Description:
mainly alpha, 7 helices
Amino acid sequence: MLKRLLECHRAPHRLPELPSLRQVLATTAGSFLGIAILSGLTRHAGVDLLMAPFGATCVLLFATPDTALAQPRNVIGGHVLASAIGLTAQHLADLHGAIGLAAVVTIAIVAMQLTRTVHAPAGADPLVILLKGHTLGWSFLLTPVLTGAVILVLLAYLVNNARNTEKWPRYWI
């Protein structure tokens, strides 16, 4: 077994290919516009639409749009489900200790797996909610979670279809 492990360790690794200039420009435009729109609406319209996991969502939507984690079902469903689990935990128990935080994140990840809505950035949503320091209301699911995720998906639809010959998304539902 050790010999096999060492052989795998010595095997040459191939880095992914560099993205084309067109891909880099689309990623730049999409991620910049996505965060700027959410931030601008938060500041000027007085509607809270920005949360840290949306930065990581932009990585997936604009830099790796063909992956399963970057499909609308996963982005929207993952964020809503994981946030609902975080809010439920916040309202039911004081789960700010290490075991409580770990349990809620784990429950969110398993729930995303079982519903086929895995979206890696959404795994942080329960932490955002539980570490906020005060009880968030259920309206948090509407803004920023659902509305912010939908805005990012709609922007990704425009940006990704402008840059690719293949249509994005691969699936909606």
